[in-house]
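Entry type: protein chain
Record version: 2
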Amino acid sequence: MDFVTLNNGEKMPQLGFGVWQVENDQAAAAVSKALEVGYTSIDTAMIYRNERGVGQAIKESAVPRDNLFITTKVWNSDQGYDNTLRAFDESLERLALDYVDLYLIHWPMPKYDQYVDTYKALEKLYHDGRAKSIGVCNFDIEHLQRLFEECEVTPVLNQVECHPYLSQTELKAFCSEHDIFVEAWSPLDQGGEVLKDETIKKIAEAHGKSPAQVVLRWHLQNNTIVIPKSVTPSRIEENFDVFDFALSADEMAQISQLNRDRRRGPKPSEMHMR
């Protein structure tokens, strides 16, 4: 496993396990398998409705809590200072944990103009030691700039949709300039066109790896944190097996040139679902 050092000094595995779209009754088995394979970073959220399943897997695991990195998120309908603190307590209860390693705002929802107050609640949780690190998801540059102006703690990362067809070059450069990591959700394009791309297939064949492994390697070598999701044991193992090869500079460039600025999810500025 490779680790990154966040801007507050905390260390985070660069490859984690995501549980978006994993049913609660499947989450315990999937996370248990991931922990067995060697993942120690688990990414969940209130809106995924599987925090209890994740918590069960953590409780039953032989991996010491101090060796785990657990992330969860505050959902749109819980934004605002007091609501966020309440939502955090509820997430901790479902996870059966005393703290989380990372707490994130799920979407900025600029139309409702609550993300600054929400982030200030995250700052309190951080100062109280209940969230070891805090950050955001799906924030555009303008949203991050406002946090810099009105808040005190720089987010450790910004979790955004990112894959070879949406490389997020400008946002990544801005985040890097401000010592904020980018973490990729849907890093494999949700198993879509990216994994069928002829360029990626050709590179995969050259390395004796799968297209998914090549894409994950591209993310890692781009200094991006990545959280692939699967409930299939063989895929969970495959996605972890990405540390025994490296892509050449030419291969990295070939993949980066596939960018189409094509999203599967909504644009952050247009996401207003409560």
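Comment: The chain has a mean pLDDT of 95.
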